[in-house]
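re: ur question from yesterday

yeah so i grabbed the chain u mentioned. its 254 aa long if i counted rite. heres the sequnce exactly as i have it in my notes:
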Amino acid sequence: MTTAPSTAVTRREPELPGQTVVIIGGSAGIGLETARRARAEGAELILAARRPDRLRQAAAEVGAVGTAAFDATDPAALERFFTGLPTPIDHVMVTGPGPYYAPLAELDRERTHRAFGDHQWLAIEVAQLAVGRVRPGGTLLFMGGTTGRSRGPGLSFIAAATAAMPALIANLAVEIAPVRVNLIAPGFVDTPLSASLLGDDLEERRAQLRATLPIGRVVGPDDVAALAVHIMTNTALTGATYDIDGGQQLIRGT
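ran it thru and got these structure tokens back, copy pasting raw so excuse formatting
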């Protein structure tokens, strides 16, 4: 009599057990998907976002231990949020508002200043507030993009802003070490934000990318979330920018 060989199942230990992950912009898209993945890896979650209704729904879905509904670009509200956090925090991720595109003749000074504040200055403020609250070896993780590396009408401001972020992140990593600071730079990601920006052109854009990207599919928020959690767990990573665009930069015209 013979018996079938048994297959041993190796159970992987979670990578963020007992760690606290704060996600600002955690109610939808990349932020929410990162919350899901971090929770699956054993993390405790604190979510922040502008819209209380979506925030409540997201928090219930991922079992967040805390939430805060506020506008992260409001310096006073951001400071109140950080002051109220339990310490130490292990990781802070900031997804931030969307980019600002406009042809040169239509660039608005006030909107340009606001867009700078929404990204570069927000990163500076978060870094300032993280000192003494994020543990040594913990992570600050910001979102940039790759679209602004192209050249063409409507990209003058976003090109400058895109170039500035990696330099800022690298310097922050030195200034607030041993807290680690990194930047994720996606291309097109199929999120609610992308849908709102493209409107009726969304499906056409998806089809174009499926046909042209080297990976043969559209990048989703789960792809970016996997990278985010990896950066949190790999303690050798700091001061760097990580592109995730499915090869979009390699194909002209995408």
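noticed a couple things. The chain has one domain: 20-247. also The chain has a mean pLDDT of 91.
anyway ttyl
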